């Protein structure tokens, strides 16, 4: 049974942040510029100093804004979960501290889509990828074929997270699921799939959020070519989705992730070890567990060498 939107605040904007006062300021300015004004905004701060607190302070005169400085840094994604747990709105709108709304009617469009799609508890929109200076690099928008496949099978996100960052999403609070603290790289798509097990997606084919993609401090940058993170998290998520019955397509996908990640790490591994790790692929060992366990074993040996 859905939450009655006229009983409570329509939208809770949740901003879990860490050591990015300039990004938080840009995001808060974009929130204040929204034509849709019936929201609450919750900032939970993991920063070690008071720079973000000083940036936020002027906004607190507006009763819609709440700031919490965590006594102890929670880390990602625990700070995301804590921020969302404080929400009282009908919908939760996570915004990362280095993303911001691209137009004044962004919240209005998302809310209108939610109202017009009562059977969909998960709303998402397109976004624009930006560098650290705020320059737009390109647009990110899933095509209609992907959205059709996703409507038929939530596991499509396992192969490509075309919905991107949580900053592009608006999720009904009674359907919101905490992010899994065991995950870092696949944490968002795994949460999306759990939510889509209980509801449907309504997608707005317009870029409403600017997303920073080139910051060297982002978790994405630290995880994308990490063998440990990629291999362990893909196996973990595959086990959640399929248990022991991992489909061939998923096994092939994980094998390709393995090959890509190993190739990116050739510089750091001894060449013979890297080539040996690829042998199971060429030999046709497409069973994901066997391939990934071998790769992790060889990676551990390489690090100890």
Secondary structure elements and pairings:
Elements: E1 11-17, H1 21-32, E2 39-45, H2 51-56, E3 65-69, H3 78-85, E4 91-94, E5 99-101, H4 106-116, E6 122-130, E7 136-140, H5 144-152, H6 156-159, E8 169-172, H7 187-196, E9 201-212, H8 219-223, H9 227-242, H10 248-264, H11 271-282, H12 288-304
Parallel strand pairs: 1-2, 1-4, 2-3, 6-9
Antiparallel strand pairs: 4-8, 5-9, 6-7, 6-8
Helix content: 40-55%
What is the approximate shape?
globular
Number of separate domains: 2
Percentage of residues in strands: 15-25%
What distance lies between the first and last C-alpha atoms, to the nearest angstrom? 58 Å
CATH topology of the largest domain: Spore Coat Polysaccharide Biosynthesis Protein SpsA, Chain A
Count helical runs.
Answer: 12
What is the mean predicted local confidence, pLDDT? 87
CATH class descriptor name of the largest domain: Alpha Beta
* Largest β sheet strand count, sense and barrel closure: 9 strands, mixed
Quick overview of this protein structure:
This protein has helices at residues 21-32, 51-56, 78-85, 106-116, 144-152, 156-159, 187-196, 219-223, 227-242, 248-264, 271-282, 288-304; strands at residues 11-17, 39-45, 65-69, 91-94, 99-101, 122-130, 136-140, 169-172, 201-212. It is of the alpha/beta class and 305 residues long. Strands 1, 2, 3, 4, 5, 6, 7, 8 and 9 form a nine-stranded mixed beta sheet that branches.
